[in-house]
Model the fold of this input.
Amino acid sequence: MFILRRLRPLVALLVVLNLSACDDSSNDAPTSESDAVELDHQVTASNVDNTDLLNTVFTSGQRKGVYLLMGQSNMVGFGDLADLPEDFPVNGSHLFVVNEAGDLDVAEAPIQGARVGPGIAFADAIYSEYPYLDVGIVSCAASGTFIDQWYPDQAVDSLYGFCMQQIKVAMESAELLGVLWYQGESDTFTSELMESWSGKFKFIIDSLRSDLNMTNLPVSYAQIAEINHDAWDDTFVFWDEMKAEQELLSGELMNQNVTMIRTDDLTLNSDGLHLDTAAQLEVGRRFAAEMVYYLTSDFY
Done:
């Protein structure tokens, strides 16, 4: 059973939205399960004039696909911008985000707050492998969230409901091609949270497919990464058990258009909890390797 921890309306729409919870804080989750996560968002404007690029790319008539990103802080991203390669992203003129108004905008890093996540690397890798559509992303990730907070509630004051509202607006301009999920760290606080995670995640998948009327909607999720156990074992008590739970689930959902990527070989920030920039870019590429299959196999 879900225990819904309600949030105010919240979505991180890449370039144009900044979550107050996605600042320089290194602590991903509350210090106890009972701590409610309450996040605000504010719209920020870019000083970069992208008018020519927008007019060139987004009126080209090329097919447009959009992916929905959901999860907590490692989906938001905690990589350092200074560590990005100079030529990143390679295919920037074919990557877009969907802003709060539902309009297409140029994809630029950072996509949330002031850190690097996997979103643009994912879109960049998709286009490199399948240069026949412009690739867009809508991200609803929120740091520190339990899976209970993603309960499939259609109300716009819930994470799920507001996210659904935004992706449906995006689908007026682009075709929804898949969902990426990176969450589970907060649900390692207790055995009860850990043991109930898989059932709740399956319910979210079923709800997304039903609410979007896409029975076979592809979903790829990230297994939680390694952690500095010396620093965090007293907080994230059932970390290894969650990894095992997520691994078992990947076998159960095999052949159901649900896949899992592994992240335990990737490098962490100095906080011993969040992935660094190089790792975030690799997460994006691994997600892309899963999703590009559907593009190249005449799935859609």
Observations:
- Residues 3-56 have pLDDT under 50 and may be disordered.
- Residues 191-211 form the longest helix (21 residues).
- The first strand starts at residue 17 and ends at 19.
- The chain has eight helices and nine strands.
